[in-house]
């Protein structure tokens, strides 16, 4: 089994995630449908992230790259040294763009200065911090630090972006399943939006090597919209129930700008290539199937 995992790293990861991770994430829906019991979804999202995503990332990295690989992964998680511009991008790009889009459609938010401050603190900042610490940092440790990094090392940046976007979309099926037949429309649209999002993530990671930064960008994006554990920035500024969608749509122009500015190169490939390529150099490594 260990040899098989070493030779099929991403397949092993995905089997674990779609069996265990999905099993946890679908918990509230199963409880509601079968037992007529309403359960808060947030603890299940945290469990699906930590057990379904982070755990297999760490275990497979240990099996393939040993302790040194796990240490190197952790160093990318806590890599906080970066130019201030990267932090400005991670913290401001999505909220500013989302507010511009929302203002175009609904007009400027009609809120008092106190209400604006409350929305910024309790919505954007609080929701981003909670989401970052409980979900988003560990989510990106798995998706960018393990899946996308290994895919781009073997198949190139754009194959990695598109495949990771597809898997990331499937991860969110438990959140969309209640929409019934509309899910066949929601999922392709979500996938199309996620592609430029994964491109931004790849660019930041390839230029900085920091999973901390990409986790921060992810958290702020969620904190701008629906939030992880409560309403984010936009729902506190507008009364429309659909306004949180602008946080998702904001990544599209930002991502397209990054793609154009880098001519599709997305910063090249981060110099710390996963060690598995040398550790298992003679094995029939197939990280997809």
Task: Describe what you observe in this structure.
- By secondary structure, the chain is an all-alpha fold.
- Helices cover 75% and strands 0% of the residues.
- It has a domain at 81-279.
Concise structural overview:
The chain contains 14 helices and no strands. By secondary structure, the chain is mainly α.
Any descriptors?
mainly alpha; 14 helices; 75% helix; globular; 289 residues
Give the secondary structure arrangement, pairings included.
Elements (H helix, E strand, L loop, with lengths): L1 H6 L1 H17 L1 H9 L6 H36 L6 H23 L6 H43 L1 H15 L1 H4 L6 H26 L2 H14 L8 H5 L7 H5 L1 H11 L14 H4 L10
- How large is the count of helical segments? 14
The secondary-structure element order is HHHHHHHHHHHHHH
Mean of residue pLDDT values: 91
Largest sheet descriptor: none
Q: Over all CA atoms, what is the radius of gyration?
A: 19 Å
């Amino acid at each position: 089994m260990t040899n098989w995992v070493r030779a099929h790293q991403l397949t092993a990861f995905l089997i674990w995630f779609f069996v265990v991770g999905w099993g946890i994430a679908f918990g509230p829906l199963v409880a509601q449908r079968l037992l007529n019991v309403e359960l808060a979804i947030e603890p299940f999202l945290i469990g699906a992230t930590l057990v379904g995503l982070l755990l297999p990332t760490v275990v497979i990295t240990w099996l393939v790259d040993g302790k040194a690989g796990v240490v190197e992964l952790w160093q990318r998680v806590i890599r906080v040294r970066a130019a201030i511009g990267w932090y400005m991008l991670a913290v401001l790009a999505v909220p500013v763009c989302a507010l511009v889009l929302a203002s175009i459609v609904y007009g400027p938010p009609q809120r008092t200065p106190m209400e604006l401050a409350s929305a910024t603190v309790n919505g954007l900042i609080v929701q981003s911090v909670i989401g970052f610490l409980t979900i988003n940092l560990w989510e990106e440790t798995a998706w960018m630090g393990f899946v996308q990094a290994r895919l781009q090392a073997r198949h190139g940046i754009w194959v990695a972006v598109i495949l990771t976007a597809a898997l990331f979309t499937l991860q969110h099926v438990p959140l969309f399943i209640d929409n019934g037949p509309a899910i066949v429309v929601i999922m392709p649209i979500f996938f199309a939006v996620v592609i430029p999002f994964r491109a931004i993530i790849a660019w930041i990671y390839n230029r900085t090597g920091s999973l901390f930064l990409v986790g921060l960008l992810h958290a702020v994006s969620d904190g701008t919209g629906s939030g992880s554990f409560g309403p984010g920035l936009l729902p506190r500024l507008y009364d429309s129930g659909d306004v949180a969608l602008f946080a998702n749509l904001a990544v599209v122009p930002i991502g397209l700008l990054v793609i154009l500015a880098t001519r599709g190169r997305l910063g090249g490939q981060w110099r710390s290539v996963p060690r598995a390529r040398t550790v298992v150099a003679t094995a029939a490594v197939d990280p997809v199937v």
